[in-house]
Amino acid sequence: MNPQPSSPPEIHSEEFLRLLMRRQLRLSCACAAAFLVVLLGLPLANYFYPEAMAQRVFGFTLTWFLLGIGFFPAVWVIALYFIRRSIALEESELNSVSGSKSAAGK
Amino acid sequence: MHLDPYIVVFSTVTVVATILMGFWAARQSKTASDFFVAGRSVSVGWNASAISGEYLSAASFMGIAGMVMSSGYDALWYPVCYACGYLFLLLFIAGPLRRFGAYTIPDFAEGRFDSPLFRKIAVCFVLFIGFFYTMPQMKGAGTTLAYILPGLPYWAGVVLVGSVITLNVSLGGMKGITLVQAVQYWAKMFAISVPIFVLMAVYGHYGKQLEANSTSAAPVSGIQVATNPVVGSMDMVTVPAGVPRLALPEKAPKDATWISPFGPLTTKAAKAAKLSPQESRPYSLLYTYSLIIALVCGTAGLPHILVRFYTNPNGVAAKRTTMWVMILIGIFYVFPPVFGVMGRNLFPDLYNGIGAKGTDKIVLELPRLLNEKYAPLGSILSGITCAGAFAAFMSTFSGLLVSMTGALAHDIYGRMLRPNATPEQRMRMFRIGAVLLGGGAMLAGSFVEPLEINFMVGQAFAIAAASYFPLLFMAVWWRRLTMKGAATGMLAGGLSAVLAISLTSFSTLALAPGKSGELFAAFKPLNTYWAAHPLLRILCEQPAIWAVPMAITLMVIVSKLTANDIPANIRLKMLVLHAPEKLGLKEEYIQEQQPAGH
Q1: How far lies B362's CA from each of B228, B357, B386, B546, in Å?
Q2: Are the Cβ atoms of B91 and A97 closer than 8 angstroms?
Q3: Are B543 and B293 in contact (CB under 8 A)?
Q4: What is the DSSP string of B380-417?
Q5: Nearest CA of chain B to the CA of A11: how many Å?
Q6: Distance from the Cα of residue B348 to its chain's centroid
Q7: Nearest 5°: phi and psi at B260?
Q8: Scanning every residue of chain A, which has its alpha carbon at the shortest distance from the alpha carbon of B83?
Q9: What is the pLDDT along chain B (598 residues), one digit of tens a residue?
Q10: Where do the domains of chain A lie?
Q11: Contact across the interface for B261 and A43, Cβ inside 8 Å
Q12: Residue A46 is nearest to which of B262, B334, B582, comparing CB atoms?
């Protein structure tokens, strides 16, 4: 699927490691950022908009509903996205070096 | 209060079944490597249940409900962060560590820095964190036994349960076997969810129960809570929502502070300093953030959690397992707060109790209410929650005792004190170590009765967050980290967190009546100091907000100063940590580690 680069990277090269770490860290940080916005944003919302967060939803206060129930599915979505993407990332990393490996393996 | 036969029968069956299952499973697999290899043939569903079963301790089963009842909204951060910390672990640490092939944090510490010395330092923290984590389990045991056998003093319950588990571990039962742990997850899930559904069907659902608590400080017309809050009075007051409710005793927090954010849990220090509610809000916000950091980062640093990532055939299965773990524990964590909410409306008597007689036992006691209408259903359901509580603290305490004793016998005795000990000597040391550590845990456990279960687990998480989390995070993502840098940061962060936490806990214990108060009387003056300096009190009680950044900063500074010590083959190490497992680099790495020469 992925077009092979004209010269596949050497596994032990500096460039390959840098590319590997940068791509993984970017994915992890993007997911962590989404998570942290929700996690760290809720106390801020409680702090600055106490009335809005105290509105009743099915008997719960809004903030209780979000924290006690709504939080878990949100985290599942982030986790699912991360897992899908990181498996795909590993596949493409594998594909990008497989050429060079079989050549060097002999 | 009399002995309830249903509760005794259910609890006894659980204890006996747990011990028998442990011995049966221990016979199936003799060595530590069996444990891992056996795990690798296990399906994703079983493995996910086992991880979840190991994770849900007395804090999850009893402590959350107790703390939600006593402190309200703020306590919800605990279950949420216990579950969400797993995400952080998944994003930054689980994958690389799995590829590296280090089974425990000490293994990783040694492999990443080629330093046996660093391994020893890391082992000491296994003992530290494990010790802080066993104390709340002991409180759970003491509380449960004091409930089941009325009249039994708290410490006797701690010693009884502690001795049974210690004996069990030292005889070789209770290894962390996948099947046992998986069964225990479902037992706990059943024990927490079935009683709560029955209770909600009878007394009104979760939202309705919460609706009975007003958000405004002024009493709402129509809700007239009984004028004379006599302890044990049974005048049910029905509020507009249609939920029956008992009068709250004096000691209970008021509705508005209980249901709203920044309530009793986070304002305690500011209140002691006599600040106005408006002035204390920034302090509460700080407390909340520090708590979140401790719980989220601490999950990633808990020594007994990481091991389980290896019990999967490959990386893809490991990731799928993690997804299921997050779903399983997420669903579980919806239920305990419901007990706390219902307990506030239906069982406010517990606000008057202290220690083992306080809110920590709400999960056990609440189902008994059903006896008023449908005897003996209440006793049966209460027996089921007691059985769940036994499963919770027995599995966690045994697991911790096994890993702590392993560290003591294998690392401290086998590697440091007597490197050429025979296997028999090590086996004997394992038994002696189990008895020593079990005894220490029982002793410490009998003094912590005044502290809440959940609070103590939070403290253990804070120590893990300040020591292991910076180590793992930096070692995986920053290649210029040196052994000296990592050790300095981990020791400084971890030890200062231990110190700060101990100071606040000692000063709280000094105020408690009874022997705990006498023992820690020397720390009493500290409370006057805290009252004058609420900010310092918060920073000591919840140290993560400064200890985690401090540890990371120290790691960077010291690593820069000792840049010559970066391991020579660092590029290969980082490659093993980050390259796909299918490239088979781990093998290559291990071969290179073999001593040269033939």
Answers
A1: 23, 9, 11, 34
A2: no
A3: no
A4: HHHHHHHHHHHHHHHHHHHHHHHHHHHIIIIIIIIIII
A5: 8
A6: 26
A7: -95, 155
A8: A72
A9: 577 888 888 888 888 887 787 777 766 655 544 444 444 566 788 888 888 888 888 888 898 999 999 988 999 999 999 888 888 888 988 888 888 877 678 888 888 888 888 888 888 888 888 888 899 999 999 999 888 888 888 899 899 989 988 888 777 655 556 777 788 899 999 999 999 999 998 888 888 888 888 777 654 444 444 444 444 444 455 555 567 788 888 888 888 888 888 888 888 778 777 888 788 888 889 999 999 999 999 987 776 666 666 666 677 887 888 889 999 999 999 999 999 999 998 888 888 887 778 888 899 989 988 888 887 888 889 989 998 998 888 888 888 888 888 788 877 777 777 777 777 787 788 888 889 999 999 999 988 888 888 889 889 999 999 998 999 999 999 989 999 999 999 999 999 999 999 998 888 888 887 777 788 888 888 888 888 888 888 899 999 999 999 999 999 999 999 988 888 888 888 888 888 877 777 666 555 544 433 3
A10: 23-95
A11: yes
A12: B262
Q: Which amino acid is at B536?
A: L
Read off the tokens for B530.
Answer: 């805290």
pTM of the model: 0.87
Q: Cα separation of A98 and B94, whole Å? A: 25
Using a CB-CB distance cutoff of 8 angstroms, which residues of chain B are in contact with residue A20? 575, 578-579
**Furthest C-alpha separation in chain B:** 89
| Whole-number Cα distances in Å, B396 to B60, B136, B176, B216 | 11, 10, 10, 41
Burial (0-12, 13-18, 19+ Cβ within 10 Å), B594? exposed
Q: Enter the DSSP assignment of B93.
A: I
Closest CA to B364 of B196, B593, B552: B196
- Angle, CA B324 vertex, CA B323 and CA B326 arms, to 5°: 70
Q: How far apart are CA B297 and CA B284, in angstroms?
A: 20
> What's the ipTM?
0.85
Contact B211 A71 (CB under 8 A): no
What is the rounded end-to-end Cα distance, in angstroms, of chain A?
Answer: 25
Residues of chain B neighbouring A73 (CB-CB closer than 8 A): 330
Is the CB of B84 less than 8 angstroms away from the CB of A11? no
What is the distance between the alpha carbons of residues B6 and B376, in angstroms, rounded to a whole number?
8
What lies within 8 Å, CB to CB, of B500 at 6+ separation is B539, B540, B541, B543, B547
